[in-house]
Each structure stands twice: as C-alpha cells, then as structure tokens.
What does this fold into?
Amino acid sequence: MTRASLDKKPREVAAMFDRTARRYDLVNDVLSLGQDRLWRKATAAAVDAGPGELVLDLGAGTGTSTDQFTTLGARAIASDFSLGMLRTGVRRRGDSGLSGGGVRGVTFVAGDALRLPFADAVFDAVTISFALRNVQDTEAALREMLRVAKPGARLVICEFSRPTPKSFDVLYSQYLMRLLPPVARLLSSNPDSYEYLAESIRAWPDQATLAGVVRDAGWTRVAWRNLSLGIVALHRAYKPTHKPTIKPASESED
It folds into this structure.
C-alpha cells in the first residue's frame, strides 16, 4: 500500500505519509510553484502567536510550518501521526529522538487528531495546515481541538479549497488530475500518494461548507479568507468563553 483510499483509514494515511516524508517539502514547493511559502506566512500571521503563548500545530509533518509560529517568542508543539514525517523533521534539526527538545521553541509529539495526547484547555492557539482533509472524521477532530484549546483560544485552518472563478476552477481541476501525478512521479519518494492528494482535494467541501462544520463542532466567530484565488482558504474561529450564540459563518477576501 503506497497510497491511502478516500476512506482515510488512519493506518493507511500514516503509512502513506511515512513513505512520502523524505522529499515531501521539496515536492510541495515545486507542485505549488512556491505558493506554499506564502500560504505558510499567511497562516502564521493569522495565528499571530505572541510571547509566552503555546501553539498546537496539528498535522505538522516535518515541522516546516511550525517554526513560523515561534518567531515572536511563542512555544509550539508539532504533532503528527506519521512517525516518518516527525523523524524527518527532528533529524533536520540535529536531534536523535521524536521530542525536539524545544529546539527553536518547537517540540515534536506523535499524536492522532481524533485522540490528542494533551490535557483539556492548554493551548492558546490550534492550527492545522493541509491535514484536516486527511482525517477520517472532520467534525470529531475539530471537537478534539476544541477540547485542548483554552477558552477564547483561536483556531486557524489552512486547507485546499475551491477556486472562486469558475473558469479557473476548471483549469485547476485539469492540473490536479492530469499534470500533478506525472510531475510527482518524477520528484516524489512515493508518487502514488499524489494521486490521493488530487482526489482528496476534489472531494473536499467548499469554503462555506467547511465553515459550517467548524461551527457545528462548537467553535464560534467562524470566518474565512481565500488565498490564491481560492485554491487555498484560511478558516479562523475561536473557542467560546461561555456558551456561544450560533451565528452564520462570514467571508472576507483580500
């Protein structure tokens, strides 16, 4: 098994990313034409982690995105259920174990988004980039994130979404299904996983639908912002400090 199915069985997904880890960041940079760097910066700006805060970066993989949450003095935990990804991230930092030892304010912890190995109400911010799509039960994962977040904590989701111009959406679909897999075969240590990537992106809900799932999981003040014409969307929300009043999700675009 070199790729997972859209059933997203945890063992299959973890094994797929274990095999992908070695060249994962390089392939993503090439396939996104460098846009992934801009998406990471936008996510870090939305998280806006300050001194003394603790950030949980779920689906962190090799921790490439996690470092950006610590630039203003926050601490971050990079958590993923792919041990291959975590080992690659730790090795790049010159450490020998799965715990990053607080290098650059980042600690690596193995964990499943559906059963997080953390106490209740400990994080000032929870973020997940390009990984919520790989979880078997989206709403259950969002409820688990809510559990470990402090009252008033913020949630930031960076995930592939639906391009807003319809003509561009058609072109993007052709790229995903026809161009992305052959390019991945040239570059990736597990090219079959990029067939799953293309299929999972097309099967993922649009911006408004995902906002509704976030709200149903108990988060409040849900909003989103499109990046790169809607190829990616940043969803933001907050854990209520009291019983929330349910309001429709709102949209804002730059």
User: Anything to note?
Assistant: The chain has one domain: 10-251. The radius of gyration is 17 Å. Residues 166-187 form the longest helix (22 residues).
